[in-house]
Amino acid sequence: MPSEKAPVEKAPHVDPVRMQHITDEALLEALGAPSVAAARPWRRPRPVPAALGSAGAGDLHGIEVDFLDKGHGRSQLYGFHYLRWMTPLITAYAETGDPRHAAEWDRLFRQWYASRDLVQGDWPGLDVVWYSLGVRARAMYVTEALAVFADEPALSDDCWLEMMKTVLGGARWSAEEHDAFRHGNWQFVTACELLHTARVFADLPEAALWAEIAMARVLEHLEQDVRADGGHHERSPGYHDMCLGSVDRAAAVEPELSRHPRYLAMRHWLEVLATPGGWVPHLQDSGVVWPELGRPVEESYNLEASGYATFRAGGFHTVVNYGPYVGHELEPHSHHAALDFVLSGWGVPLAWEAGGPPSYDDPLYYDWYQATRAHNTLLVPGEEYTEDRRAACDVFSVSPEADVFAGHHHGYGKRHDRRIVFVKGESPYWVITDRIDTEAIWQLHGLSPWVERDGGYAGTRGPGILVVPLEPPDEVLYGSGPARIPDPATRTAAYGEIHSLGLRRHDGRFTVGIFPYRDELPKVPLPKVPLPKVPLPKVPLPKVPLPKVPEDWMVHADRR
User: Tell me: the pLDDT tens digits for 341-367?
Assistant: First the structure.
């Protein structure tokens, strides 16, 4: 668990009059309207749609909600107060015109408004309601609800007033909170939404100031928080996609942003990482992302600023992670692994990893999803993996015959060097070479249990991979754990099980071939392509005493 940190946002500055408890009279004065009847009709630009679909709207009818319940979880309590779970009512009403959906929104929103001052969170210095992501999310959803329900009598004037106060008070808070640049997705997405709010509610007297502040922050984030290759600095496709979607909303009301080169590069970044199946792997604390792609990237590509190298040929796709461990406002979304990789072919994962958790309250978050053992890299028994891993790419070479990546990192007491060669042709395969001057476990995770076959280890069903070590391991270990599995047919990624293969060698030397198969196991070719010889320099490292960690993450299978 991470240690408690200083507050990640400004000291509390919730003005009880201008933000928290705006009176009806003050709201109408800001709107320049004599009455609710005069102010309520929607005469503004339509907000960019934010509701996510109507599925489940009927299940919200009549439910009783305890908005103060900490049973949601430490982190999930904050997300619950985003009110995203209520948005199916907006979409269902837009699709059907059924006033019952508006009435349910009215009932639930008014309950939330009445209880919002009472809710208590467990993150020190971070208010559940008055913090960036919550204010930003409610601005998105409540603004859309205001536009959709504007003429519906089933939504009461009292609810309408409270919704408008929520948007107005939140915008005032955001403008004060984000009057200076700071790194991270929190400010980036909140500034984008503040700009969207300012342009949609341009009739409000403070809107011009909001737009000025928000535009300054958005431009700063595009220049300072987006890397030169287009990747958001946290290196997580899911959070990158969240930031890109927020810039999309801002660009819809501020066309100048749509021409910014970093905005265009953000799209290209996802296109490079996207597999032929249309999904982006769940790297770091990410979910599986299904971007709307423009021109497909058809060649291998190295995202140097982000630290991701990709191979691509014949429907096969490889992503190698060699980037840094990146900090965050609350706790990092980086995982404790480097030189790990994921492989896909025929539109499905072949070698996979744990990815992001269902919730940051998940008990497996730290010892599985973020842990080294859930990634396709070397695990050194008895050593903790350090955050300052100093990972680097030494070679990235592309040719018609083979693509090559070579890199190293210092996440352990000994330097780890890895070379990955992707041999192209009618039957592509990978050759992975690793070296570390200590005992290590070579790890790979597939989508089905492993069995010994033809001098190696294969998944029990296809599409899959056959893993063949050049030299036999001293010990073989098996295990399993949860991960999202992308389904191209439905563009979803439900949680399933991935299966761990561990090859343990006392000398820390590994050369392993990975051969994909669709239905039946392939005949393993001996490599005929001369593999490039990459010098692996030795770097003297200080000897640091490291604490022991349990080694029972896998089941011992056999010893040689």
Answer: 999 999 999 999 999 999 999 999 999
Q: Rounded CA gap, 307 and 262, in Å?
A: 17
Crossing angle of helices 88-96 and 132-148, rounded to 10° = 10
Q: Which residue has the tokens 């709010």?
A: 197
Distance CA(91)–CA(84), nearest Å, equals: 12
Helix, strand, coil shares, percent, the chain, to 5: 30, 20, 50
The owner of tokens 């969207």 is: 196
Look at residue 404 and give its three-state secondary structure: strand
SS (H, E, C) 371-398: CHHHCCCEECCCCCCCCCCCCEEEEEEE
Burial 399-424 (b: 16+ CB within 10 A, else e): eeebbbbbbbbbbbbbbbbbbbbbbb
Record the tokens describing residue 215, joined without a space. 């535009």
Confidence of residue 294 (pLDDT cuts 50, 70, 90): confident
Domains parsed from the chain with CATH numbers? 17-177 (no CATH), 181-273 (no CATH), 302-559 (2.70.98.70)
Closest residue by Cα to residue 273 from 249, 245, 246, 238: 238
Beta bridge partners of 498: 481
Give whole-number Cα distances, 399 to 407, 507, 528, in Å.
18, 32, 15
DSSP label of 515: E
**How far apart are alpha carbons 325 and 387 in whole angstroms?**
6
When pLDDT is cut at 50, 70 and 90, the band that residue 524 belongs to is low
CA 172, 176, 180, 183 torsion: positive or negative? negative
Give the model confidence (pLDDT) of 65-102 as tens digits.
999 999 989 999 999 999 999 999 999 999 999 999 99
